[in-house]
């Protein structure tokens, strides 16, 4: 285990099991459709790559980079688009792939943008959900694990851009925050 981590919440194996389950359900629910699967960068990049391998229907992928946390453990409340999609979403069934939903601000903003561009449908899949952090109403279609109200890192999630490469999800030691 990394020296800055005080507790592992979900191991690599547990995460893969959950992704297998999510992939099966999504495969069943999207049969006959050709969804555009959107990865919300950066955090969702590992989940996206593991999940699409478990979705057994034709699909296309695209990427959008947004950021609201910066170097902090609290959302700035302002969601910035850093990279937009390459393809139009008009008339498409869109599946948005997110690593974590906390306040809900990032996704409520994204869903509004995609609806404004006339997506046929918008569906959300998140690997982790922190319902206690929510400040806006958001309907989430598929959730992996429900988390306690703690700042977590690993499996794509960062603190100040670090720890994304940890293969598990963990909680940082308190002194890591106080040092920065
Ligand atoms: O529900 P919210 O409170 O909006 O939080 C969730 C969002 O915050 C994180 O992204 P961040 O803005 O840190 O960018 P990153 O993915 O590049 O780390 C995470 O990856 C989600 O996209
Ligand atoms: Mg982040």
Automatic annotation (TrEMBL):
Task: Tell me, in a sentence or two, what this protein's role is.
Answer: Purine salvage pathway enzyme that catalyzes the transfer of the ribosyl-5-phosphate group from 5-phospho-alpha-D-ribose 1-diphosphate (PRPP) to the N9 position of the 6-oxopurines hypoxanthine and guanine to form the corresponding ribonucleotides IMP (inosine 5'-monophosphate) and GMP (guanosine 5'-monophosphate), with the release of PPi.
Tell me what this protein is called. Answer: Hypoxanthine phosphoribosyltransferase
> Where does the Phosphoribosyltransferase domain lie?
13-159
**Protein EC:** 2.4.2.8
Q: Which organism is it from?
A: Chengkuizengella axinellae
Output the Gene Ontology terms for molecular function.
glycosyltransferase activity
Catalytic activity reported: IMP + diphosphate = hypoxanthine + 5-phospho-alpha-D-ribose 1-diphosphate; GMP + diphosphate = guanine + 5-phospho-alpha-D-ribose 1-diphosphate
Pathway note: Purine metabolism; GMP biosynthesis via salvage pathway; GMP from guanine: step 1/1; Purine metabolism; IMP biosynthesis via salvage pathway; IMP from hypoxanthine: step 1/1
Supply the alphabetized keyword list.
Answer: Cytoplasm, Glycosyltransferase, Magnesium, Metal-binding, Nucleotide-binding, Purine salvage, Transferase
Record bears the keyword Nucleotide-binding: yes
Q: Which cofactor does it need?
A: Mg(2+)
Extract the InterPro entries matched here: HGPRT, Hxn_phspho_trans, PRTase-like, PRTase_dom
Please give the NCBIfam families that the UniProt record associates with this protein: HGPRTase
- Which gene holds the coding sequence for this protein? hpt
To which protein family does this belong? Belongs to the purine/pyrimidine phosphoribosyltransferase family.
Against CDD domains, the record matches this protein to: PRTases_typeI
Any idea where this protein resides? Cytoplasm
Keyword Nucleotidyltransferase assigned to the entry: answer is no
């Amino acid at each position: 285990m990394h020296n800055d981590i005080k507790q592992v919440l979900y191991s690599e194996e547990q995460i893969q099991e959950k992704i297998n389950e999510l992939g099966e359900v999504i495969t069943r629910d999207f049969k006959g459709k050709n969804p555009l699967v959107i990865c919300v960068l950066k955090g969702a990049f590992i989940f996206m790559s593991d999940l699409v391998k478990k979705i057994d229907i034709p699909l296309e992928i695209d990427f959008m980079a947004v950021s609201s946390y910066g170097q902090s453990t609290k959302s700035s409340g302002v969601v910035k688009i850093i990279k937009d999609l390459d393809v139009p979403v008009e008339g498409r069934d869109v599946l948005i792939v997110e690593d974590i939903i906390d306040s809900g601000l990032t996704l409520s903003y994204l869903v509004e943008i995609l609806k404004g561009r006339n997506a046929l449908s918008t569906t959300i899949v998140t690997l982790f959900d922190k319902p206690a952090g929510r400040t806006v109403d958001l309907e989430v279609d598929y959730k992996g694990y429900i988390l306690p109200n703690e700042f977590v890192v690993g499996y794509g999630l960062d603190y100040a851009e670090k720890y994304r490469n940890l293969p598990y999800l963990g909680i940082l030691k308190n002194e890591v925050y106080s040092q920065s």
